[in-house]
Specification:
This protein is α/β, with parallel strands linked by helices and 357 residues long. It is built from 15 helices and ten strands. The strands form three sheets. Strands 5-4-10-8-9 form a five-stranded parallel beta sheet, sandwiched between helices. It has a three-stranded antiparallel beta sheet with strand order 1-2-3. The chain has a two-stranded antiparallel ribbon with strand order 6-7. Helix 6 packs parallel to helix 15 and helix 10 packs across helix 12. The relative contact order is 0.12.
Length: 357
Amino acid sequence: MTNRYKKIFVIIVIMCLCLPLLYIFGASNSSVLHGSENIIALPSIHERSFKEKDFQIQFEKWWNSHFYLRKKMLKLKNQFYDLANFGKIHSGYNNQVIEGKYNYLFEKGYFSSFDKHCKILPKNFAKIKRLNDSLKEKNIELYFVLAPNKAVTYFDYIPQRYKYYLGKDCLYYRIIEQELNNLGINVLNAQPLVSKIRVNDRYQPFSITGTHWNHYGAGRTVQYLAKRFNWGDVEINDVEESKSPYTTEKDIANVLNLLKKYKPKQRFYRPIYKLNKTLLENVTIIGNSFSKEFKIELVNTGLFSSINHYKNEPLSIEDMEKIKNSKKIIFVYTDIAIMNEKDQLYKKINFILEKLN
């Protein structure tokens, strides 16, 4: 090889090595990280902590979370990881995101619906029964909406290497629905409804890039719930289409924290309603993150005159006053929350039971 070609070869190699840095400095918005971070405070140095090396350990943790270009380097690391795995296993969000068919993203935590042990704790239902009875004494109606699970809805999209999760589907949604029915509690199991919407409707109930149901899936559930319990005739006149998400339809894609953003082709949809009747009642919605879209769509129907909403935060004494004045309380949770006795669902139930009397 002549000197000329050697120089060209060296220049090409250097350019390839510099590409990541060019990518970093060229991506003006790549320093923004999505998702929660644990902020490490700069430790104070003392003679004892320095000698015992506590300071050095804490300083290293602080440096790892504050060094220059850390956020961009983290995104670069995630990008290399994704490239090495052909974009099918994602490094972002603590390796909790997998990509299935048609670019659909799934969060591993929701596979717990396929737990091999099939445990259902009777004492959890006993608490719900106590709550229902206590609310009835106050002339307050209790409703449970079992929000759908994306992994259950699109189980056939999950990659083959994760099929062991599907080895024994415990049918938790059906079991929970039956248990609540047996206790005389108003319940709507949205999972089979949303699964049918996926097959029969023109619009999908989940976005490709989100872990929560989208506004169309939540809106159709609100429509069915109103019909089921005779709240009013909620008619969907039209469906609005957008290129940008309305709320959380890209929440999984955002936490991937990639330099090259994850952008599959998709549209976002929201139902437009025609309402025949409005009920002059106060309603309270209590739920996890799935209750956000549900609340928005219930408000959009104009079905009730006043709606309170409590998502993940603990309830307060002031909140209880509004809850006591409600005519209806709607709990919106997935099956995972009902199976987990330590979930904030039961903390809220305990608080309401304690403060109701």
